[in-house]
Amino acid sequence: MSKKDPAPQADDAALLGAAQVRELAERLEVRPTKQWGQNFVVDANTVRKIVRVAGVGPDDVVVEVGPGLGSLTLALLPVVRRVTAVEVDPRLAGALEETVRSLQPENAAKLRLVAADALTVTKLPGPDPTALVANLPYNISVPVVLSFLQHFPSIERVLVMVQLEVAERLAARPGNKTYGVPSVKAAWYADVELAGRVGRNVFWPAPNVDSGLVSLRRRTPPETTASREDVFRCIDAAFLQRRKALRGALASWAGSPDRAEAALVAAGIDPLTRGEQLDVAAFARIAEARPEGQVDTPPRARRRGRETRSPVPGP
Ligand SMILES: C[S@@+](CC[C@H](N)C(=O)[O-])C[C@H]1O[C@@H](n2cnc3c(N)ncnc32)[C@H](O)[C@@H]1O
After folding, report:
1. Average per-residue pLDDT in the chain?
2. Does 94 count as an annotated binding residue?
3. Kindly report the CA angle at 154 between 95 and 81, in degrees rounded to 5?
4. Distance (Å) from CA 92 to ligand 1 centroid
5. Nearest-CA neighbor of 161 among 188, 182, 186, 132?
6. 3-state percent helix, strand, coil for the chain, nearest multiple of 5
7. CA distance 217 to 255
8. Cα(12) to centroid of ligand 1, in Å?
9. Which residues form the Ribosomal RNA adenine methylase transferase N-terminal domain (predicted)?
10. Cα 189 to ligand 1 centre (Å)
């Protein structure tokens, strides 16, 4: 056993309870807005749980998207090396540092505030982030997760609280009725698990739906010569008409149903399969099998050009 003091836990720290969240909001004259998905956590046990399930520790540099009034930030700060908090609402961004200074002065130096729209953030100050931990605004939760996994390869783990339905969709497996574009794209970057459910009563104001915790662990993307963009375009096309067999659903993506069929056969996939049955590795194989130089063309041009294009290459 080490003689060193154990790493501080969120349990020891000053956290915000329901009364403090409301008081703080009142003092800052912040009325929560739907536009920015502002449902603040008013339950200290929930933020402790998020930090615990995230599995972050003293070496972690955590990005928190949407710190709001600071409920989760205050639970993260005692536990991790640094928190970089990205907040779009200038009223909240302007107050966060002061909140931390007054409640946890010992951790104030660990906080870095970035006042910005998280969807535009592709670089962050300070050391590379190792984790994303956030209670995300519901309307942009999937784009935020995908964008941070794309732009920050140093992020190894993600724990986000999102609308339960979105959490289930992110963690869904092929064949499941909630499996869709978010599930396949998230699986490109990470192994994804539903890590818990959270009732709506831990928020102020309470949303109309329950929430879920989603845990993502970075993995190596499927091996393919196709670019991520190409694979993602193929996924988008397949799910645009999710009940359709891929031969038809991928027709415009490939140039024609015949070309789609050829790419599917070359990838070893039955052309009558539906996208909802395939995992991300299968989409990577299809994108790889697509004829080179192929571009999405309007239907008329596609019909005219059909006979003149070169055949789809074999596997
Ligand atoms: C669900 S609240 C969570 C607040 C706080 N983390 C908590 O748990 O109480 C979402 C937060 O994200 C912020 N937000 C919304 N859209 C954003 C964006 N595009 N970029 C950064 N922050 C955003 C909101 O202003 C709000 O503070």
Report:
1. 90
2. no
3. 45
4. 9
5. 132
6. 45, 15, 40
7. 36
8. 25
9. 46-220
10. 23
pLDDT digits (tens, 9 = 90+) for 145-203: 999 999 999 999 999 999 999 999 999 999 999 999 999 999 999 999 999 999 999 99
Residues in contact with ligand 1 by the CB-under-6-Å rule are: 36-41, 65-69, 71-72, 86-89, 92, 117-119, 135, 137, 140
User: What are the phi and psi torsion angles at 229 (to 5°)?
Assistant: -60, -45
User: Rg of the chain's alpha carbons, rounded to an integer?
Assistant: 23
Distances in Å between the Cα of 167 and the Cα atoms of 60, 194, 195, 284 are 24, 7, 9, 24
pTM for this predicted structure: 0.90
Q: Are 241 and 253 in contact (CB under 8 A)?
A: no
d(CA 174, CA 152): 27
Question: In terms of Cα–Cα distance, which of 194, 205, 184, 191 is closest to 161?
Answer: 194
Place of tokens 């502002």: 38
Question: What integer is the mean pLDDT of 5-32?
Answer: 82
Q: 34 alpha carbon to ligand 1 midpoint, in Å? A: 10
The structure tokens 């920050």 sit at: 152
**Is the predicted pLDDT of residue 292 greater than 70, yes or no?**
no
Report whether 66 belongs to an annotated binding site.
yes
For residue 207, give Cα distances in angstroms to 19, 24, 200: 18, 20, 6
